[in-house]
Amino acid sequence: MRYHVGHMKRAVTALAMLLVWGCTAYALDPALEVSQYAHTAWKIREGFAKGTIKTITQTPDGYLWFGTEFGLYRFDGVRTVLWQPPRNGYLPSSNIRKLLVARDGTLWIGTHRGLASWKDDKLTQYPDVPGQEIDSLLEDREGTVWAGVETIPTWRLCAIQEQKVQCYGEKGGLGLGVGSLFEDRKGNLWAGTGTGLWKWKPGAPQLIPLSGPVSEIHAVTEDSEGDLVVTTRAGVMKLVNGKVIPYPLTYSGPRFNPHWMLRDSNGGLWIGTIDQGLLHVHKGKTDRFSQADGLSSDFVQDLFEDREGNVWVCTNDGLDRFRDFAVTMIPVKQESANSYVESVLPSSDGSVWFGTRHGLDKWNEGRTTLYRKKRVPVAGIEREIIDAGLPDDFQASLYEDHRGWIWAFSRTGAAYLENGRFIPVPGMPGGYAHCIAEDSAGDLWICLDQGLFHVLQGRKVERIPWESFGLQGLALAVGADASRGGVWLGFSEGGVAYFKDHQLGKSYSVANGLGKGRISSVQVDQDGTLWVGTEGGLNRISEGRVVTLSSKNSLPCDSVHDMIEDASRSLWLYMDCGLVRITRPELDAWVTNPKGTIQATIFDNSDGLRSTALAGALGPRVGKSKDGRLWYVSEGSVFVVDPNRVDRRPYSFNKLPPPVHIEQIIADGKTYDPTGELRLPPRIHDLAIDYTALSFVAPEKVHFRFKLEGQDRDWREVLNVRQVQYSNLGPGDYHFRVTGCNNSGVWNEAGTLLNFSIAPAYWQTNWFRAACVAAILAIFWAAYQLRVRALHQRHTLLERHEGEISALNEQLMKAQEEERMRIAGELHDGILQRITSVTLELAAATIELPRDSQAKAEVREIEKRLVEVGAEIRQLSHKLHPAVLHEKGLPTALAAYCEEFSEIRGIPILYKADENVDELSPGAALCIYRIAQEALGNVAKHANARQVEVRLTRSNGTVCLLVSDDGVGFDSGRNEASGGLGLINMRERVRQLNGTFEFESAPGRGTKVKVEVPFRPAS
Prior knowledge:
The chain is α+β, with helices and mostly antiparallel strands. It contains twelve helices and 72 strands. β66 (732-741) and β67 (747-758) form a beta hairpin. The model is unreliable at 1-25, 333-337 and 378-382 (pLDDT under 50).
């Protein structure tokens, strides 16, 4: 990845931000040693950059810039990007030696072969400055930029003001070697060279005569008293009243060759050497941090402090950052005989006791007293040794009672410190105390493997076996109840119980709502409220009610090992995931609404704390000293948190919102500068946007919110992810917004905006769409015209063949009627005649039978039935061939049928007919006649009607038949769907005549059948 030149413009135009940040700059805590700061190293061999980093600075937009042997790099805390000069532009050399950001935002670039500057997208060369190595740059309070040039074998000094260059020392008058520049608080400009120190201004340049090794000046600064401090071949020196004296350093390590110095914002002095790493001078103490401690190299190239107070160290092999931890680690291993610390006890006299694997140590602001029999060497540093009656390698749990006595519980038994010696307690068995508490009577309660021990008046010892409690496991936590007396016990297998006067009182378990798992800590408030730390969260028990604070309420995790209150009554929880602080207002709000969520601050490994999942055998593991600091033990080390400092320092609450930048767009593998009006080519399949937010306190904790309007439905939030990808974006205008927040959750609400567009392909343009729409419309119009033509031709064809179709229907119906006539004739002339003949033969046979014969009666009965069958066949023949219809027409035939129907069925029919209907064609007349027969047949079978109306009318070229009754009716929809009541036959007959058929019925409202067919006259 290469850094595009357009970003430099944003860097230099952010001067206002620089001024704001300058008013709120932080610095590292000067009370700490280098080893107590958070340290991160980026190694060149791990691919961080190419070549040795020689120089570093920070531009107003927040980026860090560093120069190497192979180019200029930009750094956002996560990624390094190589900067490239603009097209047709170039630097005097890619070997960058010195960088400077002026107050107007100009980036001055000193190279191995001359000087350049960059501002507002313009790269400027300075040919009047000698084209050799620029080894120092400085801007004085008047705005003049000074450049020190190593013009071998001499050194020259050039002043640049308003593009005018004036150089000094052309004839070697300034001496030899590499030079350095410094402006003190009074405005004096100092120049150090290989052969002496110059006071350059005000007034005429003046050489301060020096001799010997001190004459070779590497770097210049000043101390708090205003005296000059210089690094020389003879070491760090101080110039007082024209005399050079050694700078006071409390350092007893190996000799070192100092070159670079940095006075940080809190007055701490950082010294970079070329052979022994880094020295740090603070509050009269000097400590060292070298490659053995994790520095990327012992050869330091440059020092720099950014606007958030981070100190940066350039070395031969990489880049190092030092920043404040929210949690400070006390170097107890050095102070306590290289021992592994297992317990910590801040005492009432201000000292802190450590229980280690080699004995007890008492620590008080750097002074350590070892309670040993043997003298233990500690890296050449003497410690006070006291033989207080303890065996060597004494390991113990510790406690301080109300009298200030220090108690120790170990494998050899219990003892308390009195008059400088530990006095054994008779009756106490050996073993580590899992928990210790003092009740309101001043008696101690100690949890051992053997049971609960009660020490009365510091002498008498009582033992209560764990079996007597009726609970599983042993107690790991105990808390005295000052309001009621007695103690609360928390057990290893879960559950808490109240114990007083040898009686077990109220108890709580998971069944009562208590968190699951082992109980690690118990505390009781003055009002009797019980707080219990479990594997399932923090529990509060008050007036018999149990509520649990866990990850469901926004705690970062669940398992609580220890708890302690600070001076402001904020609660600190030592948990699996780290150290968690809950402020008192947040805690009170949760007590009021236990189902609500809380805002908690977590301090983890990145904050200087080593988290551990399970507590060790010794205790206590947390404590609060008289000054309010909180002490923790984890993995053999001691960590200290100052709650007041946490609220003040930038890491605990960094008030500086990070500048947010969009760095580049990568579309289908091609990189674009996100400046100006960015227009991307069409058909973009894969698009990536690189963005960043510049906070160097903890870049890994920077959050981002981004949204591509028109693509993302809502804002998306990510942690330390600095690229977003999109696929198959269509043509159009896009607006990408991104904001960022620092490690303390302070958001840069304004963020930044990127406007870009994607050009359409030719088939995505409006004219192409319009052409396509026009083509589609033309196709539809042509199809419509073809359809209209086809319909017209069809209509013409239908009209042409309508007569033919009608004739065919007539022929069909005529054929059907002829078939009926044939069947009727066969029934009448064949079957009926035979039945009549059989009837006559039976009548003749009957005469011959005796009058009183039983056979005669049976033959007459058969004769009677044959007569009935003959009548039915005659009636069926008549229905199949209504002769009156052919002889007298439809109205008369239908009237005769209605009259016959009334006589047979006993249902009166009101019949009305137009006489001119008799002109209807025979086929149509027969069809209507059959429909009337079917309808009246349905009335007789199903309607249970009292009266029927039949109307036959002609109007407007149609013939209409209406048959209605006042019968019971039925659900017409259900019966139509089923196809019952002859509806299928009636509809089929009407369909043959191209007519319409209507059928209406409802329960209790009768039935109506209406038929309309075209009038076709008889031919």
